Model the fold of this input.
Amino acid sequence: MLVATLVSLPNVALAQADAKKAEFSDHYERGRRFYDIGKYPEAIDEYQKAYLAMEDPAALYNIAQCYRLADQPSDAIRFYRNYLRRAPDAKNRVDVEKKIADLERIIEERRLGTPPSPAIAPPSNQPPPPPPVPTAQPPGSPSPAPAPMPVAPLSVVTTAPRDPLSPPLAPPVEAPRRSRLVPYTLLIGGGAMVVTSMALGGASASKARLVETAAKNHQAFDPMIEKSGKALQAGAVVTGLVGVAAGVTGAILLMSARSAEAAGPGVAAVRTTVYPLLGPSLAGAGALVVF
Done:
């Protein structure tokens, strides 16, 4: 029963993790499609659901991109900074910091009411209007002043020009999953050794009862029974210690592997070192965990 419990719990956790990854990929792909057709509010909603399913910093970056392109600079700055906080070693950090500075400048210009830099609109494809037909003037009358040539009005851009459209970040390539054969082997083996320790302990207690019964009944003392009982007791202690140490070590290794997968790129993973413990009255294993 103990071994079955130790095996079933990691399998349930693994199934839940796979379901979360599938949910993340589904929402992430829908967010990318909304982004491609310019439906930024819908894309934001999908990227938020993807991030809630699995904390991938790329989803935060894409949310910031959508807010920036939807002309919501304050929200865009907030998510750009959250992205840098969750991915401090991001390769596009310089570009993100420049986007934050540009958005802060736009917010300040709007607060002060500073007009944006004017830009001349491109020439129209429509032909200019024909010049007026001159009329005959009576002799001796002064020539009228030439009419001024019509000038096309300048068109002023009312919003600051945007930088080129940046595509959303693709989800990072999942790192190879660490082998979990060793943690599961330690968990199963540790559980089996604990069961063996309990069986040896029961046999040792049975031998002790035989010695006590013989003493009460004034029967001849059999030293082989006492020696066998002590050997069984020692075996129960050793297998129990080794089984508990193996089970705990396997659990630590399994948790460290899961934390390394959940950390993603740019985040230090948990390092675990397993070493044996042997002595005159001690047998087992230890684990050094470095965060």
